[in-house]
Write a structure and sequence with these properties.
The chain is mostly helical. The protein is 72% helix and 0% strand. The protein is built from 20 helices and no strands. The longest helix is centred in the N-terminal third of the chain and has 25 residues. The protein is globular, with a radius of gyration of 24 Å. The mean pLDDT is 87.
Length: 415
């Protein structure tokens, strides 16, 4: 069990590493150097703080220490003939080394836009931002994109090389360039939120810090660019976040939407999310985030799954398919259709989606089909689906949920 100081450092790493990195990029002007210096600063904290105590301003200590570590790194490179020292040894003003919360937020937003610069391929923009702004591992990013971690790592390496080669600036883009940069930024923010709201791996179902960070970034983006899709994304995150208190039980097990105690939902978040969703949906040609937020708003207004306006939800998924067809959207529509019209209507649609190959490694598709089959009394077929879903599950609460369903189908089959 970690000692108190070590536990404090671990918590600071989770909460402060990415914001401190964003500030270091501004001060040092080099992403790789900032990453190395950040690691050295935390190593120094592990060595010094147990002996000297935690400083009054840990963030400022980490920024200042990291800068000195960066100077040492540059000096070593100079001695080895790899780099000129140039003017790096000049000292920034104290405000740069003791950034307040507002400055850190601005630094984070600048870093996101740098990582999402148009000169980088989109896949590199998203992977790099997830890694360096949000601190996701390459494994977690790979899960989000259904892509091998080694491929994600290569995307990050290539993106960093492109930043150096093109001298990509660390700044907010001019107003005329914001629209072209916004799509990737929103996509990154949404993926970060999803990783926090529904953790892809590990023992816990959620990671609150990531969701909080995504919502904070979402609000910053809306403040900077009041675009309808930015508003829609913020609405979507708030509506989903409002359900967090009911998503797991006292044992940390997942509780599906239809079984949640809706009295536990955070009313303030749900109301604000629904308000923003209405604004986003009312604008011309609402996009995918706005439409998804509208679906979440329909759920927020219902007292139970039975009272939900499933016709409205199916209609919204129809609009999504017209806007941006994808197998996952089609799967979600089929599940809503089952709630409206019955399992017999939806099951052939999911069969076709799985047979087409687009969802061959998407465990939720097999879990959904298994549940529909169970409701129809097709317990042997349900077991086949649940077995596949279990083999694809990487999150422990999800595995426990699927295992309970598997056991229930086994019991029903034996009777």
């Amino acid at each position: 069990m970690p000692r108190p100081v070590e536990a404090t450092i671990e918590a600071l790493f989770r909460e402060e590493a990415r914001p401190v990195l964003a500030t270091l990029v501004r001060i040092l002007g080099d992403l790789d150097l900032a990453e190395d210096a950040l690691q050295d600063a935390f190593a120094a904290a592990l060595a010094q703080w147990p002996r000297d105590g935690v400083p009054k301003n840990p963030r400022a200590w980490l920024v200042t220490t990291a800068r000195y570590k960066a100077v040492d790194l540059i000096r070593r490179k100079v001695r080895m003939g790899f780099a000129p020292l140039e003017d790096f040894e000049g000292h920034p003003d104290q405000a740069a080394l003791t950034p307040d919360d507002e400055t850190v937020q601005d630094d984070t937003l600048r870093l996101i836009f740098m990582c999402c610069h148009p000169s980088l391929p989109e896949e590199g923009q998203v992977a790099l931002t997830l890694r360096d702004v949000c601190g996701l591992t390459v494994e977690e990013i790979g899960k989000a994109f259904l892509t091998a971690p080694a491929t994600i790592a290569q995307r990050i390496v290539r993106a960093k090389a492109k930043i150096r080669a093109d001298n990509v600036p660390y700044e907010l883009p001019p107003e005329e360039d914001l629209a072209t940069r916004l799509d990737s930024v929103l996509r990154v923010t949404y993926l970060v939120f999803n990783e926090g709201y529904y953790a892809s791996t590990g023992e816990a179902a959620t990671r609150t810090l990531l969701s909080d960070e995504a919502m904070r970034l979402g609000q910053l983006i809306v403040d900077l660019v009041p675009d309808s899709e930015a508003v829609g994304l913020l609405a979507l995150m708030l509506l989903h976040e409002s359900r967090r208190p009911a998503r797991t039980d006292e044992n940390g097990d997942l509780v599906l939407l239809e079984d949640q105690d809706r009295s536990l939902w955070a009313t303030d978040l749900a109301q604000e999310g629904a308000r923003l969703a209405s604004i986003a949906l009312s604008r011309p040609k609402p996009g995918m985030y706005s439409l998804q937020a509208a679906v979440a708003a329909v759920h927020s207004r219902a007292g139970s799954a039975a009272e939900t306006d499933w016709s409205a939800i199916v209609a919204l998924y129809d609009r999504m398919i017209e806007t941006e067809a994808s197998p996952i959207v089609a799967l979600n529509r089929a599940v809503a259709l089952a709630m409206r019209d019955g399992e017999e209507e939806a099951l052939p649609l999911i069969d076709d989606l799985i047979a087409s190959g687009g969802l061959h490694d998407y465990g939720i598709a097999y879990a959904a089909r298994g549940e529909l089959r169970r409701r129809l009394g097709l317990h042997r077929e349900s077991l086949d689906d649940l077995k596949i879903a279990l083999s694809l599950a990487t999150q422990e609460p999800e595995r426990r949920l699927l295992a309970r369903r598997f056991a229930a189908s086994e019991t029903a089959l034996s009777q």
